[in-house]
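Notebook entry, structure prediction.
Reason for the run: the old model in the group folder had no record of what sequence produced it. Starting over properly, with the input documented here first.
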Amino acid sequence: MSIIVHGGTIDATKIAVPRSQGGWSLEALARYIPPTLVAKPVNIVQEIYGIYLAHNAIRALMHEAALRVDIDPRTLSFINAVRVIRDAIPLLRAARRNQLPKLYHGLLAQIGRGTLPPRDGRINPRVVKIKMSNYKKKGPEHLSPPQPCIPFDIDVFILK
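New structure, fully documented this time:
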Protein backbone atom coordinates (compact mmCIF):
# COMPACT_ATOMS: atom_id res chain seq x y z
CA MET A 1 0.00 0.00 0.00
CA SER A 2 1.31 3.45 -0.85
CA ILE A 3 0.29 6.93 0.25
CA ILE A 4 0.27 9.39 -2.66
CA VAL A 5 1.59 12.85 -1.82
CA HIS A 6 2.66 15.91 -3.82
CA GLY A 7 6.33 14.98 -3.85
CA GLY A 8 5.87 11.30 -4.77
CA THR A 9 4.69 8.26 -2.85
CA ILE A 10 5.47 6.69 0.52
CA ASP A 11 5.54 2.95 1.03
CA ALA A 12 3.11 2.63 3.93
CA THR A 13 4.46 -0.76 4.96
CA LYS A 14 7.72 0.92 5.98
CA ILE A 15 6.10 3.28 8.47
CA ALA A 16 3.38 1.22 10.18
CA VAL A 17 3.90 -1.72 12.50
CA PRO A 18 2.14 -4.84 11.20
CA ARG A 19 -1.16 -5.58 12.90
CA SER A 20 0.16 -9.04 13.83
CA GLN A 21 2.73 -7.32 16.07
CA GLY A 22 0.06 -5.31 17.87
CA GLY A 23 0.45 -2.25 15.67
CA TRP A 24 -2.11 0.14 14.29
CA SER A 25 -3.87 -0.35 11.02
CA LEU A 26 -3.08 2.29 8.40
CA GLU A 27 -6.75 3.31 8.33
CA ALA A 28 -6.67 4.04 12.06
CA LEU A 29 -3.50 6.10 11.68
CA ALA A 30 -4.90 8.04 8.71
CA ARG A 31 -7.84 9.28 10.80
CA TYR A 32 -5.49 11.25 13.03
CA ILE A 33 -3.39 12.98 10.38
CA PRO A 34 -4.52 16.62 10.18
CA PRO A 35 -5.87 17.59 6.74
CA THR A 36 -3.90 20.86 6.88
CA LEU A 37 -0.61 18.98 7.06
CA VAL A 38 1.70 19.92 4.23
CA ALA A 39 1.72 16.74 2.17
CA LYS A 40 5.44 16.10 2.01
CA PRO A 41 6.56 12.53 2.62
CA VAL A 42 8.82 13.57 5.50
CA ASN A 43 5.97 15.39 7.27
CA ILE A 44 3.56 12.50 6.89
CA VAL A 45 6.05 9.97 8.22
CA GLN A 46 6.87 12.28 11.14
CA GLU A 47 3.16 12.75 11.93
CA ILE A 48 2.50 8.99 11.88
CA TYR A 49 5.47 8.29 14.15
CA GLY A 50 4.33 11.04 16.52
CA ILE A 51 0.83 9.59 16.76
CA TYR A 52 2.22 6.11 17.28
CA LEU A 53 4.56 7.30 20.06
CA ALA A 54 1.77 9.25 21.80
CA HIS A 55 -0.49 6.17 21.68
CA ASN A 56 2.18 3.97 23.22
CA ALA A 57 3.04 6.58 25.88
CA ILE A 58 -0.61 6.75 26.94
CA ARG A 59 -0.84 2.95 27.03
CA ALA A 60 2.31 2.85 29.20
CA LEU A 61 0.75 5.31 31.67
CA MET A 62 -2.44 3.23 31.69
CA HIS A 63 -0.39 0.11 32.45
CA GLU A 64 1.42 1.81 35.32
CA ALA A 65 -1.89 3.14 36.69
CA ALA A 66 -3.43 -0.34 36.50
CA LEU A 67 -0.50 -1.86 38.38
CA ARG A 68 -0.90 0.71 41.17
CA VAL A 69 -4.59 -0.08 41.68
CA ASP A 70 -4.08 -3.82 40.99
CA ILE A 71 -6.47 -4.22 38.03
CA ASP A 72 -6.14 -5.53 34.49
CA PRO A 73 -4.87 -2.71 32.21
CA ARG A 74 -7.41 -3.73 29.54
CA THR A 75 -10.23 -2.62 31.84
CA LEU A 76 -9.09 1.02 31.74
CA SER A 77 -10.64 3.47 29.31
CA PHE A 78 -8.21 4.85 26.71
CA ILE A 79 -10.42 7.88 26.05
CA ASN A 80 -10.57 8.66 29.78
CA ALA A 81 -6.77 8.44 29.98
CA VAL A 82 -6.40 10.84 27.03
CA ARG A 83 -8.76 13.34 28.66
CA VAL A 84 -7.06 13.10 32.05
CA ILE A 85 -3.61 13.62 30.49
CA ARG A 86 -4.84 16.48 28.29
CA ASP A 87 -6.35 18.22 31.33
CA ALA A 88 -3.22 17.63 33.44
CA ILE A 89 -0.70 19.04 30.95
CA PRO A 90 -1.20 22.71 31.95
CA LEU A 91 -0.91 21.79 35.65
CA LEU A 92 2.26 19.79 35.07
CA ARG A 93 3.80 22.59 33.02
CA ALA A 94 3.05 25.24 35.66
CA ALA A 95 4.12 23.11 38.63
CA ARG A 96 7.41 23.45 40.44
CA ARG A 97 9.87 20.59 40.13
CA ASN A 98 9.30 19.40 43.72
CA GLN A 99 5.52 19.14 43.08
CA LEU A 100 5.83 16.92 39.98
CA PRO A 101 6.03 13.51 41.75
CA LYS A 102 2.84 14.25 43.72
CA LEU A 103 1.02 15.44 40.57
CA TYR A 104 2.25 12.38 38.66
CA HIS A 105 0.88 10.02 41.33
CA GLY A 106 -2.42 11.91 41.25
CA LEU A 107 -2.49 11.59 37.46
CA LEU A 108 -1.99 7.83 37.69
CA ALA A 109 -4.68 7.55 40.37
CA GLN A 110 -7.15 9.45 38.20
CA ILE A 111 -6.35 7.28 35.16
CA GLY A 112 -6.79 4.19 37.37
CA ARG A 113 -10.31 5.29 38.33
CA GLY A 114 -11.45 5.38 34.69
CA THR A 115 -12.50 1.75 34.37
CA LEU A 116 -14.77 0.40 31.67
CA PRO A 117 -18.04 -1.35 32.49
CA PRO A 118 -17.84 -5.15 32.42
CA ARG A 119 -18.42 -6.65 28.99
CA ASP A 120 -21.27 -9.04 28.42
CA GLY A 121 -20.73 -12.38 26.79
CA ARG A 122 -21.05 -12.85 23.05
CA ILE A 123 -24.52 -12.70 21.53
CA ASN A 124 -23.40 -14.62 18.46
CA PRO A 125 -21.19 -17.65 19.05
CA ARG A 126 -17.86 -17.96 17.25
CA VAL A 127 -18.70 -20.63 14.70
CA VAL A 128 -18.17 -20.98 10.96
CA LYS A 129 -20.29 -22.43 8.16
CA ILE A 130 -17.41 -24.29 6.55
CA LYS A 131 -14.80 -25.99 8.73
CA MET A 132 -11.50 -24.37 7.69
CA SER A 133 -10.48 -22.87 11.03
CA ASN A 134 -10.23 -23.70 14.71
CA TYR A 135 -13.78 -22.54 15.47
CA LYS A 136 -16.60 -25.03 15.84
CA LYS A 137 -18.74 -25.81 12.80
CA LYS A 138 -22.16 -24.14 12.69
CA GLY A 139 -24.90 -26.53 13.69
CA PRO A 140 -28.70 -26.67 13.99
CA GLU A 141 -28.58 -25.07 17.45
CA HIS A 142 -27.26 -21.85 15.84
CA LEU A 143 -30.22 -21.41 13.47
CA SER A 144 -32.53 -19.88 16.07
CA PRO A 145 -30.55 -17.88 18.64
CA PRO A 146 -32.29 -16.99 21.91
CA GLN A 147 -34.47 -13.88 21.71
CA PRO A 148 -34.66 -11.20 24.41
CA CYS A 149 -37.34 -11.87 27.01
CA ILE A 150 -37.22 -8.48 28.77
CA PRO A 151 -38.82 -5.41 27.15
CA PHE A 152 -36.35 -3.02 25.57
CA ASP A 153 -37.17 0.00 27.77
CA ILE A 154 -36.56 -2.05 30.94
CA ASP A 155 -33.42 -3.86 29.75
CA VAL A 156 -31.58 -0.88 28.18
CA PHE A 157 -30.74 2.33 29.95
CA ILE A 158 -28.87 5.35 28.61
CA LEU A 159 -25.92 6.77 30.51
CA LYS A 160 -25.56 10.53 30.55
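Summary: DSSP finds five helices and four strands in the chain.
The old model has been moved to the deprecated folder.
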